[in-house]
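User: My collaborator and I are trying to settle a disagreement about how two of our proteins should look. Neither of us wants to argue from intuition anymore, so we agreed to look at predicted structures for both before our next call. Could you fold the first one, then the second, and keep them clearly separated?

Assistant: That sounds like a sensible way to settle it. I'll keep them separate. The first protein:
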Amino acid sequence: MATIESTAISRPRPPDLIPGYSLEKLVGKGGMGEVYKGIQLSLGRTVAVKLLAPELAHDKSFVTRFEKEAAALATLSHPHIVSIVDKGKHKDTYYLVMEFVDGASLREMMRGPLLDTTSALKIGMDICRAIEYAHGRGVIHRDLKPENILFDEQAGGIPKVSDFGLAAFSQTDQAPSKFNVTETHVSMGTLSYMAPEQRVDAKSADHRADIYSLGVILYELAVGEVPVGNYDPPSHKKNGVDKRLDGIVARCLKPDPADRYQSVSELILDMEPLVPVSFSQRPRKLSPVERAKLAVDRAVRRVMRIAAIALVAAAALVLGAAALRSGTERSAQVSNAEALTADLSSKGAVTTPGRIAEEKDLRTVTVGDGPDSITWVVAGRAISSEGRGIKFTPPGTKSSVGRASLDSEVDGVQLDLSAEASTQVATGGVMGLVKRVVLGAQSEPRSAVALYGSPGRYVALVVSGAGEPVALEIALGDQKHFTTLGPPSPKDGTAHLELSIDRKGELLAFATLGRDKRAVGQPVSLGPGWKKLFGKAPAPSLTCIEGGCEFRKISYEILREPTAPPSPPLASVDPPKPPEVKPASGTTKPPLTPPKKTNPKPPPPKKGGGKKSH
């Protein structure tokens, strides 16, 4: 329901219109009716009374929809959902009685100063938990928007979802036929918050339409505006927004429902690391048995901690001596940009088996089984040939980054580079654990397929082994230097990465996660002269950062500019003879030779009028 402004005009309602309730004042109105603040006379408590508009009371579809809202609320009992008190009909007036929420709506709150990131995410999480509960009870809201989120000030300002007037039932046992009033190819809801499929046909929209609406609300909570068209990620619009929210929102707003979160529970699982833990209740007193169990647990943890410290200390002595001898020390973690631009020590050239195919203007290189030798220029960490791919050695104290570049520069107008990357934390057993404790934690292992040009100029597609979003890193001078985040990396750190640039200079990046191939960001136009942006001709490369990386199904295609066939030599051809013209009867044949040129000046007369004597 929309909040009533001071200038709103409404029909007066008698306070005793509904038996057992006294209506005090109008607090909201919408397309289906009005909401009044009232008193439930039997208990003397404040309630909200929603009345169906009189002109709609004779329309069966609106009456059914009004009753459907009551049925939906009757199945729900959650601290973040407005609860129902009563419903009924008196004469020609249909009414619905709900708990009265005394605070403002989320829309009114958004009209003020922008919420801090922590508060915004906390509100978003509460709304998600309410919808997760509703979906679990078979209720789809279908009209989630800030106007339908109210804050209960008496309960500490917690948000509550209201207005289930467009709700649908997702389970057949909770969806009696009298509530199926949505017609095919009819859109219902509010356009800015509606999923694409809901705009076309509300009847076919399922619970994933609510997930799309949640994505719009999360974006608006974070940056203060709704996402439109090719929107910027939240972290790019507002400083301090966790970049992990970019991937969460992007997945919620996928046009195809199959590409979104398939349940609100999945969405909540990704949001939980971003939302600080808070408690709304005081801790209760523990029983004697619980206190004894807690004391035992603490003692066990203390013993285990002492043993772990002793083990780490013993191993640290060994590693400390080795570190002193090498005189080197590795950093705890490097960013994508630092790793991709690192000046690495050369390891020389390494060959792996593969196949090189030349077909007209197309050159294809695949790594794996084949009669050809593929040459790699290796720097930083070493590589080894593993089956049909390559594997980087574990990170050492000298370098946590490894790079292997094909000994082949891009000499064409169109390319495609792809590989399946598997990325994990390089544990290395007990010694690896001690390394991470003593010399620096390896918090985020990453793998990348990349195109390297002059120093500092590159394009790289990076997948994380710690669940961070897939990232497209572009550094091609001041005008093209940015990062685009895609969907969260899979938990097992395995993804098929693909970079392609066509002859028009359009850069595309894709990550296949499981069975789903997803674009990472929007196409980037580099222009027909895209190779000049790299400085020197770029080289296809694989990069391993921090963890253990293995690349398989490595493929590289380059399309060269087609060469025009040589023109055939000109043959010596005699000029054609003019066609013979037969004279008409009784005439002579005219000559075919062109007439002689006449000298306009007569020749000078000869002296003496005769021959010259000798």
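The second protein, kept apart from the first:
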Amino acid sequence: MSFANAAMLLGMLGVAIPVLIHLWNRRRVPTIDWGAMQFLDLSPRSRTRMRLAEWLLLATRMLILALVALAAARPIWSSGLGPTIGGEAPKDVVIVVDASSGMARQGGGSSPLAEAKAWADLLVDQLGPSDAVAVVRAGDRARAVLDPPSVDRSRIEAALDALPSPGGSADLPAALGEAFRILEQSGRHPTSEVVILTDGDRNPWQLDEPGRWQLLRALHNRLPNPPSITVESIEVPVDPDAADGEVMDAAASRRLIAPGGTIRVSATVRNLGPGPLERSAELVVDGAAVPGSTRAVGPLAAGGSVVVEFRTVLSTIGSHAIGVRLAAGGTEDPLPLNDASAVVVEVAEALPVTLVEGKPGLRPMTGSTDFLRVALMPLGDEAPQFRATVLRPEDLNAEALEGQRVLVLANVDALEPEGLAAVASWVEQGGGVLVVPGDRTDAEFWNRMAFGNGNGWLPARIGSLLGQWTARSAIARPLPTSFAAPVFGAIARDGAPSALGSAALFAAFALELVETDPPAEVLARLDSGDPWLVERSIGSGRAAILAGSLDADGGTLPANPDFVPFVHELMFRLADPAPDASPTRPGAPLVVPIDSPLAEGRTTIAVRTPSGRDAEALIDRTGDGVFARLPVTDEPGLYRFDLPDDRRLYRLVTADQAEATRLPLSTADRATIAEGWPLNFADDDRSRPLVSNTPNRPSRPLWRGLILAALAGLCLEVWLTRRLARRRGLAAVAGAN
């Protein structure tokens, strides 16, 4: 006999309640003798019958309370012989499943994850009927899949079957901490165990962080009933001639383009071994391979790598996932999970750009923004990638910046306080601003009002002037070897340096950097060593400053063959608030702004996870707009949000790639992990069972029968009460007569 809720046995104390009530009533009833009492006395036989009925009624009431308490404790009867008969206490078991990418490694027709699920099923079968089980998924972030522990075998099986596909790395110390939390908060049995199912790789154990392990041991010892910990390392045989190809570091020349724009996609293909790799790589757009994009890769020896590059044109407005994938075929890949890498780009309508002209031209192409405007909106281009608007400095305000993506301040001497405040607020909220100084620029004003000793939004302090605006001699040239941003890599031709290095600057300001938070970054320098282009993130936006102008007075840059592509790339970079920002990490919620019309009562949007599972994102309507929020992102990879207007939005969840190179746990590693607490590696001691219970015995839950018995007892109590009342009434009448 065992109990699922043994604590409810305390309800058995309620059996004493009818007895206490009986004794209390007897103490308070007075006895009064009077002359006619002799005529009301019952016969000895009647008195005996009534007393027996009273005791039977009292016993029935006590039995009803006892049955209810037993039913609440959920007793389970197990037939057969074994050590649990006679009192082995039920336990709480937490199953921790490693979710690193190595668990998906194929070999012998199976994988460590498939074997782990089979182990878990066997483990559950070995447990006693009252043992409760919780499940924890150990991915980049540990997450409880089944919590609190349950004795319901169908719930346990459903939790194990619903485990998402593995990917990325794992954090087993964090998973152990989550298991300890579950046992401390939800454990209800006096004994407990934690079982870890992993692939024997060293990476998920985070052994380079001894402080975390010390903290874990302290947490373990603090628990009221510290659990024993068993580790089962599961490995599958891998073909020694197989080659594990990995695609990594997919990158796009820019993340924001206009319809019809060309984008370059690159990625690194490397061979993790053990055999030589000879595969084909292909360009993938929105999950479909681009016809004709396949190119051969290899043969690559183990450890070798190569960079592949593709170009494509995107015309459909919206979010797109583009990347590189190893095509099927060739040698068998034991880990197809890492055969693709992608990046999300956005195709937007013509980008709105505001040009603030500080020096209007008296003749064509002599103003400070004339060359910029022509570069952004070429004459005769029926579908330009930019929509440029030219303003005077005094017309710049918050209303003028509404809906704009990029602001260029070209040779502006100063701004009105209203315009200066509008720019500062607009950049903080995600705008991109470029300051292009010229002969009218008041350096003292900009340093005081926009730079503010590094506290303002201007990325660098404007220093002394180098050269003369009226001179026609070169004082410096851009230095191609210093070009550090994707802006410049995108305009390089066939790997050759940009032609911008041949452009002459007649005059330029010395840009001075100070320590800021976040720090400013020099994206390009002049051959004199001075910064030419400096950039800094400001709130949700970014600001940049050039050392010289972009007109004919400042140099020969407008006549350079790379001037137009350089300006385009720079505008797109500034329009994207964080082109180099890291994608969402596993476990963090995905929040996506929705600009499609939604029905008022709609509360969810369909989402397709990287493994192909269907999920739902919740709709949040706030004062800032409508957002789709996916709270659980356990799987690294590409998530697709299906909007009501048949459009799709893509978001990327990336994981640590440390799992790519497999390093098995050594004997010394195992000893380090097991030292100081009851942690055991099962394959080190096969004589020890995975769990301490004997195989499960046929069991019968008894609580339903107890409830029925309590109902029957209640009916008996009602019948006895009525019968006793009738007898007392008849006896009283008979005595009076």
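Some points you might bring to the call about the second protein. Residues 703-736 form the longest helix (34 residues). The radius of gyration is 38 Å.
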